[in-house]
Amino acid sequence: MLEFLNQYSILWIALAFVLLYVLVTYRNKPKPRDYIALGVVLVGLWLAWNSLHPRSTPLMDNAKMVQEMVGQGTPVLLEFQSPY
What we know:
This protein is an all-alpha fold. It has a domain at 2-55. The chain is built from four helices and no strands. Helix 2 packs antiparallel against helix 3.
């Protein structure tokens, strides 16, 4: 359970901020600009998640092919990253 919370902590934090914003906004009579601001925040969070979350690369599972590319005269960029 703790791994799930740790791996998806940005989602939990974003959800907490959105819920806090909604609670504060709905305590005071919301205006149309408040709904627009909420929409902008949600779109911004979606864009951030979509552009920053890790994805697999074409050579991710083919270590032998990568080893053959190293030392052939062409620079090879190796990236090591955790999926979360």
